[in-house]
Write a structure and sequence with these properties.
272 residues, 5 helices
Amino acid sequence: MYRFLLSRQWVILTLIALVLVPTMIELGFWQFHRHERRVAQNSLIADSIAAKPVPVEELTSPGHTVPRSDYWRPATATGTFDTAHEVVVRRRTSSDDRVGVHVLTPLVLRDGKTVLVNRGWVEAAADQHSYPPVPPAPKGEVTITGRLKADETTGASGIKDLKGLPDRQVMLINSRQQAELIGREVLGGYLELIAPEPAGGTPEPIPAPDHDSIGAHMAYAVQWWLFAAGVPVGWVILVRREKRDQQAAAEAPEAPENPDRDADAIQATPSR
């Protein structure tokens, strides 16, 4: 009755179904885990942003790698901006997706150590080789508040660290690289400036990280699992249809081989 399942066509179709089901289930779990990571990330960001600001020296030190648990933690620092060693970070976007640069200015602390401060976004120079117009940093001793971030690397950010860039231009915000250029101890990571707000709104402050949206990963997971459930259902429907078609073909009356010849024979038979 089901011997047709042993045919080459049906064996191939069955093997494809057997491969698709676990593959779709695995893709569903992959999207589900991405959903879980996004939810955990949003919770971490929300908790970090809401934390009480602490002195930056309590969270990092020279050569320190900022752990994920300290990302976006508010930190304060008191010192003097070192504009002589200020650089711009290329290929950065503004809040409305304009391409420009970030202004990275070292802040020399009272104990002589330095922390890097991302003061915000400005437009790049027209020719991409000149240093762009950058609003000056506040003079004298200042106290700032910023969000702590980890050093950028090519592996983590996907940004290629190009060599031979124009003077005072970099691709990555990296405390170790800047320590070599400045010749002083630099605290690991850097601060995204929150306060005080820049005069005239420029450099444009870095917006707080998004921690509300969770994306469509959960919907994609459910979609893949529904597809996985649909494969065996579809296979059963096709099998039943094939069985019905074969039974109908077997039960159909055998048609005469040459109906026209049989009709002629009947007409030629003499009546009695």
